[in-house]
Amino acid sequence: MSIDRIVLAVTGSLILLSLTLAVFVSPNWLILTGFTGMNMLQAAITGFCPLAIMLKKFGAAPGAAFS
Known about the structure:
The protein has 67 residues and is mainly alpha-helical. It has one domain. 70% of the residues lie in helices and 0% in strands. The chain is built from three helices and no strands. The chain has helices spanning 3-24, 30-46, 50-57. Helix 1 (3-24) runs antiparallel to helix 2 and helix 1 (3-24) packs across helix 3. The longest helix has 22 residues, at 3-24.
């Protein structure tokens, strides 16, 4: 699996998890949703993604977006 697909899977999972926690536990979990969304937007604009950098150091295959 490439870095791009892992980043998309992790961010999508974080958003779904935080939305579920916001519904069943506390609305404060929406902060995580906002943070994840802002990080995705920032990565799209600048190309800088901390998760992609970590995955590259662990040897994940590069993709088209984060090479």
